[in-house]
Amino acid sequence: MEILAIIAVFSPLLGFLGAGTFGEKLGDRFSQIVTCGLMGLSTLLSIYLFYKLALGERTLSIELFTWIQVEFLQVSWGLQLDSLSLVMMGVVTIVSLMVHLYSVGYMDGDQGVPRFMGYLSLFTFFMLILVTAPNLLQMFFGWEGVGLCSYLLIGFWYNRESANEAAIKAFLVNRIGDIGFVLGILTIFVMFGTLDFTAFFDILEQHQTDSFRFFGVEFHALTLASMLLFIGAMGKSAQIGLHTWLPDAMEGPTPVSALIHAATMVTAGVFMVVRLSPLLEYAPFAREFITLTGGVTALMAATIACVQNDIKRIIAYSTCSQLGYMFMAAGLSGYSASMFHLTTHAFFKALLFLGAGSVIHAMSDEQDIQKMGGIWKFIPVTYTVMWIGSLALMGFPFFSGFYSKDIILEVDWASGLPIGKLAFYFGLTAAILTAFYSVRLILLTFHGKSRADDTVMGHIHESPLVMLLPLVVLAIGSVFAGYSLDKLFVGEETTFWGNAIFVLPQDEVISKAHHVLPWVHWSPAIMGFIGMIIGYVFYERLKELPAQLSRSFKGIYLFLYHKWYFDELYDKLFVNSSLKLGKVLWEEGDQEIIDGLGPNGFSTVAYVGGGLLSRLQTGYIYHYAFGMFIGIVFIVGWYFWL
Amino acid sequence: MASLPLLSMTIFLPLLGAFAIFFNWGQSGLVQAKNARWVALWTSLVTLGLTVILWYNFNADSSSFQFEDKFQWIPIMNVGYHVGIDGISLPFVLLSALLIPICILSSWSSIQERVSEYMIAFLVMETLLIGMFSALDLILFYLFFEGVLIPMFLIIGIWGGPDRVYAAFKFFLYTLLGSVLMLLAILYIYFEVGGSDIPLALTTPFDPAVQIWLWLAFFASFAVKIPMWPFHTWLPDAHVEAPTAGSVILAGILLKMGGYGFIRFSLPMFPEASAYFAPMVFTLSIIAIVYTSLVALAQTDMKKLIAYSSIAHMGFVTLGIFSVDAQGIQGAITQMVSHGLISAALFLCVGVVYDRVHSREIADYGGLVYIMPRYATVFMLFILASVGLPGTSGFIGEFLVLLGTYQVSTWAATLAASGMVLGAAYALWLYRRVVFGALIHPNLKLLTDLSWREKLIFSPLVAGVLIFGIYPIPLLRVMEAAVANVIDQYNLALDPEDGILDRNKALDMARQDDKEAI
After folding, report:
1. Which residues of B touch A168 (CB under 8 A)?
2. Measured CA distances, B514 to A179, A190, B282, B509 (Å)
3. Cβ-Cβ contacts under 8 Å, A67 against chain B
């Protein structure tokens, strides 16, 4: 079993090395085969391990070798397989395999096929390392690794200015979050003397009232640690304030958006929060903060998605919003509900992205939905799967999103906390908006009269089989994942999560969520229905209405269209001021002040002083005699006075 | 093996090679240059082999000096030739021995004038460097320490760029000024202790009031070498004008002399003063990290940018050292070794394109990835290591330093961590402007990718950065006992019973001071 787990995690790395070393010599086809083949192996093994271990309610931990050892600090490389990591492994490998296959078709003819396939595999490896990490530091290793791959893949087309900018932006915004992550790790180590999850989870209870001095202020230690770590999660999972990189990340090729920026990497923050459930249980304030952040993000991103025109950006904001849902539940101790939504979301969001990619492919790389329309009968398979993905996203009854979104809102309500109620209403509002923008996207993209020019319409074609197959697989997942995993993940009787998720008895919320009033139970679906109708009316019946509304509420429209002006604000506040400050410090600080007063000033003094002194050498003997006389007077005077 | 004076052999072998080149004078220019290159290369490789043997036979469990050689040198003054290494010096000895052959290989074809003198300068420098890191006599140490300046001064002043004379003098004066003060302090210690033996001086307690002055005198020298803000302005100029190999040695090893000095002398000899000044060092380090990172953002010259980034990275080193904590100091040493590999590699990366295009201006590049994919990969790896990505040696050093610092001052650790963002900003932006983007400059289209010699130069650095990132245990293990010894000595001296300052008081002061500074 150990060896299978190791193979499952490391075979994508082999794929990367294979494609990276030999890809150029042996050609595109070789890279595709080696990466997809090893990815397939990893997927099969992950599913097998899921069956054997997770369903058998067993765990497995493997220690590979010591990484760092300094005094009390000891960190090892290892794999920790419990139901939480096994679920993640399953999701990651399945989606990744589908994206690998899809990329074979999508990237066909691109100059960098070996590089692309290699990066995808490398990303998968880091993601697997992240989810199987037995300690915080290895998690951070995977965390940074996926961030690196995200950076490399966003900037994959490196001749594009915008892609390069977006790649750097993604890396830097994530790094800001990482400051929090690192400080959180440091706090945990200083408090517990270990970074191993199991080791510090065991002694948490004894430390629940400890305080920690941070910036000269005494904080509740566990709250402080949780908040710091959550800042890291906010960066990676694009929560409000640190979300600005995600929409820009759509500069990357579409399969990347599906794998990294929808299904897997961006959910790492959610995974981290769930992994740290024992810690968070003792930090109620931090959990409230998480819920609030999630709720606000869910709503904010959904409002923005309603007015965007780039098909990928709409889906990106939708991802942002759905991640908010996951955090909402996690903050209220509904960790399993977050994991459930994470899983279903991975399927339908990857599907939506890949579907969007298929549309873009068909439309000769057009991404603006205002320039599409009327193409549904040309690309029927894509059209169908986009509907399936959208319905799942909206939470349409019996599609997968229905079950997971439902349980999240039930958890919000059942928690009984004011913050839970607030999150519930935020979630309901976001549900209306979700349905609205989904319908808007479908109608503008596929229906009505075509707004594209004739050459584009002449080229329109359905994607090849190698791209359609992954779409179909993901579509099946989007339909059935909710129904089939419901009982297992969030059923009342389930023992599936075992020790992987810890909830204090007084916070237990999943069982309460099963006994909410019927209106709570059905409200998300009803809201989704309302949103759909509004969308239908706006974009099918009264087509003039959206334009009119945007004119009469111009302020609001522009506010949303400009994405709440986050980017403009940050550019002013941080980016430009740093650049300016750097220039000032260099030119004024280094060159004027330090060099001016230091070495250059010194040499000036020496030069000028030397010049002055040389004037004393006049050559007249009486000048020298006078000098000697003064000197003698001085010495004698000195002698007498002392 | 025990009977051979292995360490002394390692120290003086390069000098022997230098003599060999010197007496090879008189042949025709080309033959002479060729011989000089090969002699230098082989000498430095054998030296590297000797240091590996030292490493292999090194007993990491012991904190005492090993491979000691000792005899009276100037009996009338009681000055001895005394050398030996412990876990703190060994990493630097290895680093020096690794970088010199790399320097020689990287200058193989780019240096065509006065080749023999050039090679002699590098070999002499190697002797001085290894000697400096293993000297156990203060006078001997001072000779080696100052002696290093001379070949470096010549390398910048003779084989440097157009403004080399200004840079060379700036470098020389800055570092010499600091060293003069150190010499005074060494003389004081000599008279106080009654000899110049370092192990003896290390066990002599000094009066705390005197320590303050001695500490400052040593600080003047080490702070310039590392360099700490605001004594850093010589470094960018020196780097810009130095030839590639000069930059490699400057960033790779010369900067580490300061850090080594702090650990070897300041902490154990002047513990009270170190505790007293720790808040100041913390403040200066933080300023260095933030200030120089911002300045790096504004640079248009590749070498200047990397030079400024070096100062920021050295800020981590001083933070770690003065946290006086096992993680902090081991982190500082790891950071120094790692920076030795990374900055050397980054300067070599600049050298690769400088050799081809003869420009260091960032704006003259762009789109190199299309014609030099292998170069792009190697450059990317070192940019990431410089950013401190986990899995590279850069991360281990930074993380351990932060861990050590965090226990002393959360302010300092947080601000230092913000360097992670700024560091990523200037490094990735540099890479993006040089390697990515469209290939607009027509003269770049004819460039060739890495030659086999360049690949050979980079491969040990690539291996080192990755291995120490994933499995740094061999490195950490070597220094463990010696660092623990330094910390024990420090804590013993600061014991509330007989020290003037209690460590906790010192820590509180550090926090206070940080608050005031911010």
Report:
1. 425, 428-429, 432
2. 19, 20, 8, 8
3. 470-473
User: Cα(A640)–Cα(A479) distance, rounded to whole angstroms?
Assistant: 108
In order, the DSSP letters of B83-99 are EEE-TTTHHHHHHHHHH
pLDDT at residue B500 is higher than 50: no
Average pLDDT, chain B: 88
Of all residues in chain A, the one with the smallest CA distance to B415 is A179
- Tell whether the model's pLDDT for residue A108 goes beyond 50: yes
Residue B66's beta-bridge partner residues?
Answer: B85
User: Given B391, B414, B435, which is nearest A141 (Cβ)?
Assistant: B391
A183 → closest Cβ in B331, B414, B473: B414
Digit-coded pLDDT (tens) for B116-147: 889 999 999 999 999 999 999 999 999 999 89
Q: In chain A, what percentage of residues exceed pLDDT 70?
A: 99
Tokens 């790649």 label which residue? A167
The ipTM of this complex is 0.91
How many angstroms separate the CA atoms of A535 and A393, rounded?
A: 15
The sign of the dihedral angle between the CA atoms of A603, A606, A611, A617 is: negative
Q: Which residues of A touch B432 (CB under 8 A)?
A: 155, 164, 167-168
Are B233 and A155 within 8 A, CB to CB? no
Q: Which of B400, B424, B436 sits opposite A164 (nearest CB)?
A: B436
Average pLDDT for residues A245-271, to the nearest whole number? Answer: 93
Q: Which residues of B touch A193 (CB under 8 A)?
A: none
Pick the residue from chain B with its C-alpha nearest to A578. B294
**Which stretch of DSSP H or E encloses residue B307?**
helix B302-322
Nearest to A159 among B173, B396, B438 (CB): B438
Distance of CA A235 to the CA centre of its chain: 6
AA identity, residue A180? G
CA A24 to chain centre: 31
Residues 6+ apart with CB under 8 A from A569: none
What does the pLDDT average to over A457-471? 89
Contacts of A187 in chain B (CB under 8 A): 406
A605 to chain B, any CB pair closer than 8 A? The answer is no
pLDDT at res. B501: 44
Please report residues of A whose CB lies closer than 8 A to that of B297.
578-579, 582
Q: Is B379 within 8 Å of B463 (Cβ atoms)? A: no
pLDDT in tens, B281-295: 999 999 999 999 999
Residues 179-238 of A with CB under 8 A from B: 179, 182-183, 186-187, 189-190, 213-216
Q: Judge whether A133 is closer than 8 Å to chain B, CB to CB.
A: no
Please, are residues A486 and A403 in contact by the beta-carbon 8 Å criterion?
yes
CB B382 within 8 A of CB B466: no
CA distance B515 to A214: 12
Of the partner residues A69, A182, A186, the one whose CB lies closest to the CB of residue B473: A69
Sequence-distant (6+) residues with CB within 8 A of B23 are: none
Question: Is A67 in Cβ contact with B331 (below 8 Å)?
Answer: no
Q: Read off the pTM.
A: 0.91
Asked whether the beta carbons of residue B295 and residue A602 sit closer than 8 angstroms, the reply is no
Distance CA(A326)–CA(B247), nearest Å, equals 51
Which is nearest to A380 in space by CA: A407, A355, A415, A408?
Answer: A355
Q: In B39-124, at which residue ranges do the beta strands (DSSP E only) sit? A: 66-74, 79-85
Q: Which two tokens stand for residue B9?
A: 């052999």
CA atoms within 13 A on the CB side of B37: 17
Checking DSSP bridges between strand A217-220 and strand A211-214, what pairing results, if any?
A: antiparallel
Per-residue pLDDT band for B112 (boundaries 50, 70, 90) equals confident
CA distance B378 to B365: 17
Place of tokens 């269209």: A561
B10, pLDDT greater than 70? yes
